[in-house]
Amino acid sequence: MPKSVLIIDPLPIHRIRLSALLEGAQYAVVSIDEVAEATRRDQDVDLVVLGLSTAQAPTSVQATVRAVGPDIPVLCFDADPTPLRRLLAIRSGVRDVLPRDCPDNLILARLRSLLREGEALRECERRRMTAASFGFAEALGDFTHRARIECVGVGVDVSALLGAALGHDVEFSDMDGVIREAAAEMPPDVYVFQVADDPAALDLILPELRDRNYARHAPVLVIYPQDAPEIATRALALGATDIVPDPSSGEEFALRIDALLRLKRLSDTLRRSDERSHRLAATDHLTGLYNRRYAETYLGDLMMRMSETGGALALMVVDLDHFKRVNDRFGHTAGDTVLREVADRLRDNLRACDLVSRHGGEEFLVVLPDTSVEEAMLTADRLRRAISERPVMTGASGPVSVTASIGVAPGRAEVIAQRKNGTFDAPGDVGMSISTVFSAADTALYRAKGAGRNRVELSDV
């Protein structure tokens, strides 16, 4: 579905020009001539474009900002965008001000960046409301801590303005210093770049920052010469978050940087929300291990890669012996403590590349990539001993001794089915599927149980 843009401009010639440009770029465009009509419309829009004439005071945009709401970015086009008029409009709540004779490619680039901001605002609000419906939402706090602003290539005049206007820690660096900090995972809260004599520097620094895992989340403000809109267009195309022409006032710099800090806070909130959601969806709440669903997906992808690249894996099914007796004798609280402790011991005795998951009840699944049968058997016996050699301290219930039986099955590339989406319940088309490997390990587990428990058995497959 195309993004929806509302154009509010009293001059028909400007409405027609912008409508044609945006419709050509596949936006859904609604064009009206006054703000009052916008308040009567009931359809949602993603961004508002507002035209100002020289006769209009920039503060008049406040009515538009109030009408569309705080989550919809407003972009102004002004016939006389002096630093003062631009400042007054930004003070009133608009996100940016461009001249009416702005090149088409800069208009489209700025529009795209503001639409991304608006979507982040709305998505954060949607997640907050969803969380509130479950009763665990937290209000978003203001970005009040002293932020770290790193300036690169900033001239003396702008440096003085930034130092005087910002209530944050302002640092000055060169290109090499920025790259070193990005590589060391110590990015600032906001980058400020001033481009004057060497616009090619943006081609070097912006892609490098956006390629770094940590630096890519820091907003970038680019200061460009007012008579060089092509630099602003290039900066946005390379990943800049905001652009500001030179000359600008210190207050405008401060307002823009505060807006970027708010945007970063929202972006960080969304990212943490995603991480929490993925973690909750992939992990077992009691032990903190991966859950069965995640393990199935992981094992399917691993076997698919093996079918293409070769190699071997080993699968273990680990089951605690007579665990029902633990619950019956000591209670379920003690049983939960045992499960958590066993999970920790399994995790502590495996490599970083190995996967351990809780498969259900007192049963655990271990996947060992690139592991021979001999290595797998040694690992399985190490896990067995880690579980059985010392009792689990359960607090009031005292020490509880537990043992485990383990079944091991190898998986070899030459017999693994080339099936991407296999699960434990859906066998592969040919050869060895996930279901086959798991069944082999499960059969070996029951052989270990039948042979006296607290032992390791290898499957016949």
Describe this structure in a few short sentences:
This protein has helices spanning 12-24, 35-40, 62-68, 83-91, 104-133, 156-165, 175-183, 200-211, 229-237, 250-282, 292-309, 323-330, 332-348, 373-388, 434-450, and strands at residues 4-8, 28-32, 47-52, 74-78, 96-99, 148-152, 169-173, 190-194, 220-225, 242-246, 312-320, 355-360, 363-369, 392-393, 399-400, 404-412, 456-458. It is of the alpha/beta class and 461 residues long.
Q: Would you write up a description of this structure?
A:
By secondary structure, this protein is of the alpha/beta class. It folds into three domains: 138 residues, Response regulator (Rossmann fold); 139 residues, Rossmann fold, CATH 3.40.50.2300; 167 residues, Reverse transcriptase/Diguanylate cyclase domain (Alpha-Beta Plaits), CATH 3.30.70.270. It has a five-stranded parallel sheet, sandwiched between helices. Helix 3 links the parallel strand 3 and strand 4. Helix 5 packs across helix 10. The chain starts with a strand and ends with a strand.
CATH fold label of the largest domain: Alpha-Beta Plaits
Strand order of the largest sheet: 2-1-3-4-5
> What structural class is derived from the secondary structure elements?
alpha/beta
- The number of distinct β-strands equals 17
Rough outline: elongated
Indicate how many domains the architecture comprises.
3
* Discrete helix count: 15
Please give the share of residues in helix.
40-55%
CATH hierarchy: architecture of the largest domain: 2-Layer Sandwich
